[in-house]
Fold these 2 entries.
Entry 1:
Amino acid sequence: MKETIVVKIGGNASDQLPTTFFKQLETWWLEGKQILIIHGGGPQISQWSEKLQLPVKKINGIRVTNNETLNVTKAVLLGLVQPKLCQFIGNAGLPVIGLNASDNHLLEGKYLNQAEYGEVGQVTKINKKWLQEELQNQIGILAPLAQTHEGQWLNVNADMAAATIAIQLHAESLVLLTDVPGVLNSGKVVPKLTETVADDLFQQHIIKSGMMPKIKASFNALRNGVNQTFITNDLGRPGTQFQYVEK
Ligand SMILES: Nc1ncnc2c1ncn2[C@@H]1O[C@H](COP(=O)(O)OP(=O)(O)O)[C@@H](O)[C@H]1O
Ligand SMILES: CC(=O)N[C@@H](CCC(=O)OP(=O)(O)O)C(=O)O
C-alpha cells in the first residue's frame, strides 16, 4: 500500500504558505505518496464570530461552541478557508479535492464534553475505504468537523482531528504546520520532545494555549502507530520532532 502523509495546516499558516510548502507537496506526490491535508481556521472563525458579535471563548485551545458558533465555523471552514487552500494547491499544478464530514459519511464523531464545550466533538470513525480511493488520484483537503451517527455536526479541534485520522489511515507521518518553527523554550526550538519533557514545559507554563492540543495530538498519534510526528512552520524543516518512549 502507498505511504500516507497527513499534514495539518493551522489557520494562521494557511494564509501565508511559503514556496517550500508547494515544492514539498509536489515531491511527495511525484514519489507516489498519498497526501491528506487537514486544515484549521481558528483565527478566521474568531474574526467572523467577533464581526457577528458572538462570544469567542477557548478552554485549553478548544473553542466553546454554541449552535450559532457552529454555523459560523461551518461557513468559514467550508466557505472561505477550504476553497482558498484548494485554489492555492490547484494553482501549484497539483490535483486536489476539498472534503468534509458529510461526504459519504467521511468523519463520524461524538461529543467531547457537551457541558463544558458545547457542540464540540472528536472523530471516532472514518470512511477509510472511500477516502483511500480518493487519495489515489488527488491530494485531499479536509475540514475538521464531524457528524454524529444521528447527523448532528460537531466542531473538532483540527490538531486532534488530524491525529485521529492519521492513526486510522496508518499514516507514516503527521506534520502539524503552524506559525511557529516548533515548540519553543526560551525562544529556541526544542528539536526532540519526549512526553516527560513536554509535561515539564506544561507545568512551567512554557507550553500553553494553541500548543496544547498539538502536543496531545502528536503523542496520541505516536502511541497509536504513526511513525513520526513533527511541529514546524516549514515543510522543508523538521522543527520539533516528538519522541515516544514506551512506559
Ligand atoms: N511553548 C510554545 N512554543 C511555541 N508556541 C507556543 C508555545 N506555547 C504556546 N504557543 C502558541 O501556540 C501557537 C500555535 O497554536 P495556534 O495559534 O492554535 O496555531 P494553529 O492555528 O496553527 O493551530 C503559537 O503561535 C504560540 O502563540
Ligand atoms: C473545537 C475547536 O477548537 N475547533 C477549532 C477548529 C479549527 C481549528 O482547529 O483551527 P486552527 O488549527 O487554526 O486552530 C476552532 O473552532 O477553532
Entry 2:
Amino acid sequence: MDSTYDYVIVGAGSAGAVVAARLSEDPDVRVCLLEAGGPPPPSELVPAAVASLQNDPATDWMYNGDPGGVGKGLIGGQMMVPRGKMLGGSSGLNYMAYVRGHPGDFDSWAAGGADGWSYQEVLPYFLKAEGFVNSPELHADPDVHGHDGPVGVSVRQPILPASAQFVEAAGATGMKQGDYNGRDRLSPEGVASLFQTTTKDGRRSSTFHAYLEPAMDRENLTVVTGAHVERVVLEADGEVVRATGVACRTEHGTPETVAAGTEVVLCAGAIGSPHLLLLSGVGPREELSAAGVACVVDLPDVGRHLKDHLHTPLMFAADGIGETMTEVAMSLGPDALRAPAGPLPADPADDDDLPEPLAAAKAEAERRIAEWFTTGRGLASSSLYDAVAFFSTGLGDEHTHDGQIGFLATGYTPPIWEGVFRLPAAAFFEDPESFLDPTRGQVVVLPNPVQPHSEGSVRLASADPQVPPRIELNYFDDPHDVAVMVAVMRRALEIAKAWPGGGLGEAVIPPHLAQAHGHVAGAEPSDALLEDLARHYALTVYHETSTCRIGDVVDPRLRVHGIDALRVADASVMPNVVSGNTNAAAIMIGEKAAELIATDHGVHLHEVVG
Ligand SMILES: Cc1cc2nc3c(=O)[nH]c(=O)nc-3n(C[C@H](O)[C@H](O)[C@H](O)COP(=O)(O)OP(=O)(O)OC[C@H]3O[C@@H](n4cnc5c(N)ncnc54)[C@H](O)[C@@H]3O)c2cc1C
C-alpha cells in the first residue's frame, strides 16, 4: 500500500464514497479510501433481497445497543444496530427509501449555529447527487429534483396495488397526495406518497454503484477494502495537534500506517466515526482514561447526543392485498426457493428429476428473475417498504412534521421476524404459522415518530479497536417521545380503518398484551396498550445520527475542534436527526463536504454548486 496521499478517507459509505469520488475528480489530488468491508455481494443489487444482507458479518457490523425504555419483548432484549460493511456502506444495506427531510430540519440546524446548512443552502447538494426518473404515480414537484446526478431515484415498477391503497387511505384521513421531497412536505395537513427509492432500472443505487464504480479506474484514487482503521495518527507540536494519517489493519491483519499530506476525513458513520475519535484520544477525558486511552483533546460531546428513529409494527392479515412471501421468494429466482426454507433441493445439482410442480415453480422463478434482470421490473424491484406518509401530531416541533408512517407490502416470515428483527413470533402472534403462512397476504403499517427528544450515546468499551463500542440508544428517555409514538400509532390505525374497500381489519395485538390490558377483539386499543406495544416491540429504523454533531465536535466546515487536518463527514455530524430516512442527507453531507474541502485546499471539482 502506497503510504502517502493528500487525502485519506475512512469509510466508503453513503458519505465517504461521495467524498472520495468527488475529490479524485481532480487528477492532481491523490486520494486513498479505506474501507473495512469488501465489494458488495450480487444480492445487494436486488432490492427485494434486502433483509438477507442484514445479520451477516460479511456485510453488516452487527452492533447491538441497549434500547433503554423499549425492547422489553425483543429476543435477547438488545436492539440490533446494523451498519453496512462494504463498498457503499449502509447505502448497500438499506431499504432504499429516498427521503431528504423537511426543509425546517435544515433551517433549524442553521438556526442552531450550523452556518451554511439551511434548506436553501443544502438543496443544491441534494440536486447534484440526484438522478431522478419521474413517473406519473409520484406526483413529483418538478422544481426540486435533479436529473443528472449519479444516484438513481425512481419508483418501483410495476406499482404494487397495496401501496397505492395505502396512499389513498392516508388521503382519506386528510393528507395530500404529493411529493414529500418537494413543496408538499410543507403541507400542514401532511403528505402521502409511494416511496421514491434509490434505485435505477429496478436495481439498488448505492453510493458504490453511483459514485465509486465509475471512478475506480482513476489513477489518483486508491480504494482499499478489508482495511480496518484503528485510530487517527495525531501529532502534537506545542499547542497544535495535527492529524497526519491513520493506523489500520489490512485484510490479512497486518498493521499499516497510511499518511495523509493534507487531511484525514472520517466517514465511518454515526457509530464508527465517534468510535475512531475515542480510540484516538479525542473525546471526554474521564471516559478515555477509564478505558486506558490517553486523552489528546478533551471533547466532551464525542459520541453523545445519539439520535435514532423507532417504529412500532402494526400487522394486518390482508389476503388479496399484501404480497405473499411465496410470490416474493418466487420473484427472487430459484435460489430463494431452496431448502431449508424453500421446496427446491439445497444443491442445484439435485434438480434433475424434480416433480412437475417443483419444476414449474423453478421455471417461473427463473423467468421472473430474468425479467427483472433485463427490464428492471417485477416484485424484486423494491424492498417492499413501499409507501409513506408524513404529518404533524401537534405535540411540538412545529418546524417540521414529527410523524412518519411507513408501509411494508408483505408480512415476512418467522425466520426473518426472529432472526433479523428479534421479534418472537410465538409471543407476538396467537398462531404464527397460520398468520405468517407464506401463501397468505399480510401488510405492516409502521408508525414512526421522527423528531425524538431522547438522546443516547456511543462510548468506548475498550481501548482495543476490535471491541465494539458501547451503544446506549436510550429510547423513550424523554416522555415526549412516548406521547408522540402513541399519537402516530393512532393515526396509523385511522389509515388502516380508511383502507379502500372497508378497512384493513384489526391490527395484531400480541395475546399477552391483550390480556394484561383487558383488551378484547374489536375494541379500540387504549393508549396504555399502544404504549406497551411500543415498549415491547418497537424497532430501530436504523437512523443513527448526531454523535459528532456540528457545533459540539466539528465546526460548520466539518473540522474537528482542536485538531488540524481532520474532518468528519457522515451522518454523525447532523446537528439533529432529519424528520425522515437518513441516507439522502448523508449523501448530501458527502457532496457538501467535498466542496468545503475543495474550497479550502484548491481542489478542482467538475462542478461546484454551493
Ligand atoms: C438496515 C438499514 C436500513 C436502512 N434503511 C434506510 C432507508 O430505507 N432509507 C434511508 O434513507 N436510510 C436508511 N438507512 C439509514 C442510512 O442508510 C444511513 O443513515 C446512511 O447510510 C449513513 O451513511 P454514513 O455515510 O453516515 O455511514 P455508512 O453508510 O454506514 O458508512 C460508513 C462506512 O464506514 C466503514 N467503516 C466504519 N468503521 C470503519 C473502520 N474503523 N475502518 C474502515 N472502515 C470503517 C463502514 O464499513 C461503512 O462502509 C438504513 C440503514 C440500515 C443499516
